[in-house]
């Protein structure tokens, strides 16, 4: 009996070994020339779909090509680029993880670096650092090392960044790496930073201004330590490294009590670094001091808003607007009004808007008014600002927004006479505009054509990279499926 069991087990093991060998042969063997040609052909088909922004179909083609040749990074990279364009990090990481079973370490490194770069651009420095570390562990190269060093600085890992920046860099990365290394050294030793800049010849002239600016500041420092640190801190924060500003000014907080420049710069560093509690704490100390009024109140409003304290956010946004006077900045107005609109502060948003629009007669402000009064269901004001916009010479981006609101308002009221022609104009301005396909789908529903409506809603979701229409469109799509 035992012999019989052993024979059966041996047979099963043999079968598994043979099957494993066959699988390994087909999985790891180099692709034939015919397979490579077929692979390239399907990838090209995917590229055509990608250029047409038919993202779902493009992904299907790239997946089809991977089944033929799974050891080339091109198709994987294209799929990941699409997911990153849609800010779908989970899907991008899922594909990246699967690709490690097939691709070389250098190809995988580039894939993780692209994901890290997208996180970095999205100001998610924590996840950027994780993915740059993964990329570096697979294959160290100048681009990955620089990205990792930058993310380390922004996560407070200054010593790690300093070590990385002493590696060898190429002509593309050397200027930025050297400047960042000088920034770090200069936060600890001004003389050494000057020597680094003196000994280096800039390769790409677009970096020359940054080197000159930093050298000017370094050579203008005097005996006033607080003043010196504030000047350096301003350079660091203006060039995207608030953690370096915090590293040199945080320990000086007591000495900054009557120094508005230092408090403003440190508060801004905390805000840009996402430490909103500390930003509020420091900026409140600057309130009683003269200087930077509209800017520090603007930053306090933003910091409170990020802490979900809308009451205090409104107080300081109001002060920022009030202190700005005739120099009221477009970005401040847009930020404040969109916060009020998104927070359903209807009465307050109308009050603020009414005060501002008395003095500013600009298309961008009228477009905010259209959104504001559409949401408030104030037809008189909505029609007034739509009328104002119809008389203005608009850039394409503003014209697209105007047409969207005009069409949406007409569809709501059943006034369909001009909708078809407006839709045609909107499409001619941008055939990938998700707002067009949203409105066209609504128009189709009103016309009783559910098939066309469904197709247009699906296109709206496909083209909506910023997530501006997806929530509304998904509700409508559910009605026709």
Topology, element by element:
Blueprint: H1 2-28, H2 33-51, H3 55-68, H4 73-85, H5 89-99, H6 105-121, H7 125-138, H8 142-154, H9 158-164, H10 174-186, H11 190-198, H12 208-218, H13 225-238, H14 242-249, H15 260-272, H16 276-286, H17 293-306, H18 310-324, H19 330-342, H20 346-357, H21 363-375, H22 379-390, H23 396-413, H24 419-429, H25 434-446, H26 450-463, H27 470-480
Description:
This protein has 481 residues and is mostly helical. It contains 27 helices and no strands. The chain starts with a helix and ends with a helix. Helix 19 (330-342) packs parallel to helix 21 (363-375). Among the domains are: 29-103, Serine Threonine Protein Phosphatase 5, Tetratricopeptide repeat (Alpha Horseshoe), CATH 1.25.40; 394-481, Alpha Horseshoe (Serine Threonine Protein Phosphatase 5, Tetratricopeptide repeat), CATH 1.25.40. The longest helix has 27 residues, at 2-28.
Fraction of residues in H or I helices: over 70%
Radius of gyration: 29 Å
CATH superfamily of the domain at 394-481: Tetratricopeptide repeat domain
Summarize model confidence as the mean pLDDT: 92
Structural class: mainly alpha
The biggest beta sheet is recorded as: none
What's the CATH class of the domain at 394-481, please? Mainly Alpha
Report the total helices. 27
- Number of beta strands: 0
CATH topology of the domain at 394-481: Serine Threonine Protein Phosphatase 5, Tetratricopeptide repeat
> What is the rounded distance between the termini?
62 Å
Shape: flat
CATH architecture of the domain at 394-481: Alpha Horseshoe
Low-confidence stretches: 16-27
Please trace the helix and strand order, writing H or E for each element.
Answer: HHHHHHHHHHHHHHHHHHHHHHHHHHH
The proportion of strand residues reads: under 5%
């Amino acid at each position: 009996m035992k012999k019989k069991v052993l024979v059966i087990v041996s047979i099963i093991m043999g079968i598994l070994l043979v099957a494993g060998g066959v699988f390994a042969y087909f999985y790891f063997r180099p692709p034939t020339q015919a397979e490579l040609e077929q692979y390239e052909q399907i990838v090209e088909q995917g590229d055509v779909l990608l250029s047409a922004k038919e993202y779902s179909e493009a992904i299907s083609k790239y997946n089809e090509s991977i089944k033929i040749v799974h050891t080339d990074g091109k198709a994987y990279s294209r799929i990941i680029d699409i997911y990153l364009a849609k800010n779908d990090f989970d899907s991008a990481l899922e594909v990246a993880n699967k690709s490690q079973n097939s691709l070389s370490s250098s190809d995988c490194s580039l894939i993780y670096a692209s994901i890290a770069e997208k996180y970095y651009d999205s100001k998610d420095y924590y996840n950027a650092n994780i993915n740059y570390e993964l990329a570096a562990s697979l294959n160290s190269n100048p681009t990955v090392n620089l990205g990792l060093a930058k993310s380390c600085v922004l996560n407070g890992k200054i010593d790690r960044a300093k070590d990385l920046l002493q590696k060898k860099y190429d002509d593309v990365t050397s200027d930025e790496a050297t400047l960042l290394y000088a920034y770090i050294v200069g936060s600890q030793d001004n003389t050494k930073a000057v020597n680094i800049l003196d000994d280096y010849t800039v390769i790409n002239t677009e970096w020359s201004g940054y080197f000159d600016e930093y050298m000017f500041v370094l050579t203008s420092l005097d005996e006033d330590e607080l003043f010196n640190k504030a000047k350096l801190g301003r350079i660091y924060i203006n060039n995207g490294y608030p953690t370096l500003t915090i590293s040199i000014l945080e320990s000086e907080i007591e000495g900054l009590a009557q120094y508005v420049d230092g408090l403003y710069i440190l508060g801004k560093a905390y805000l840009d670094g996402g430490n909103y509690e500390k930003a509020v704490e420091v900026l409140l100390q600057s309130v009683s001091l003269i200087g930077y009024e509209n800017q520090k109140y603007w930053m306090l409003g933003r910091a409170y808003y990020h802490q979900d304290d809308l009451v205090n956010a409104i107080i300081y946004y109001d002060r920022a607007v009030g202190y700005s006077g005739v120099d009221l900045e477009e970005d401040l107005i847009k930020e404040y009004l969109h916060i009020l609109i998104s927070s359903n502060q209807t009465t307050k948003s109308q009050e603020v808007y009414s005060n501002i629009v008395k003095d500013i007669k600009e298309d961008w402000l009228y477009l905010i008014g259209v959104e504001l009064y559409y949401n408030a269901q104030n037809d008189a004001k909505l029609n007034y600002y739509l009328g104002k916009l119809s008389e203005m010479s608009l850039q394409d981006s503003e014209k697209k927004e105007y047409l969207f609101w005009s069409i949406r308002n007409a569809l709501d009221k059943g006034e369909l006479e001009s909708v078809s022609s407006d839709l045609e104009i909107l499409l001619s301005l941008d055939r990938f505009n998700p707002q067009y396909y949203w409105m066209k789908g609504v128009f189709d529903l009103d016309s009783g054509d559910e098939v066309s409506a469904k197709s247009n809603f699906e296109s709206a979701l496909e083209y909506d990279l910023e997530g501006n229409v997806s929530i509304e469109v998904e509700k409508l799509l559910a009605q026709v499926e």
